[in-house]
Amino acid sequence: MGFLLSKSMDQNFQKQQEFMLHNARLQMERQILMQDQMRERMVAMQIAWSREFLKYYGAFFSLATLGLTVGAIKQKRPAFLAPLVPLSFVLAYQMDMAYGTLGYRMRGEAESIMASEHDRLPMPHGTPTYESIEKARRARSHLTSLLEK
């Protein structure tokens, strides 16, 4: 009788472990998907910011080009056109970021770094651990309780 009860408990324990493992896997997959969606939204916001900035910078660049060109012609001094060189580099960069392939090139370079220069990637003090996070939390809560007194 004890053997049957023990066998039944072992089976229940095994099923419970499988269920917990399945739930942990589902939770991890959801966490990964959520983080990926958050990353996608951040990248979309960066691209949108670049496009919006490009509109304002493009207007500034157009006015500066017009003003400097008119000044260079009226004063007969081509040196007035010199500021257009660095301004055009900034414009080209913003256009590439907003509508070009800069994002793809950056991702390719990042993948190359991850593959061939992995030793450059570790964070200072290594990957955070549960213990390091708890230590920081306790220190902060200790400071908070001291400040409240």
UniProtKB/TrEMBL annotation:
It comes from Osmerus mordax. One of its GO terms (biological process) is positive regulation of plasminogen activation. The gene is CI046. This is C9orf46. GO terms for cellular component: plasma membrane. InterPro entries: Plg-R(KT).
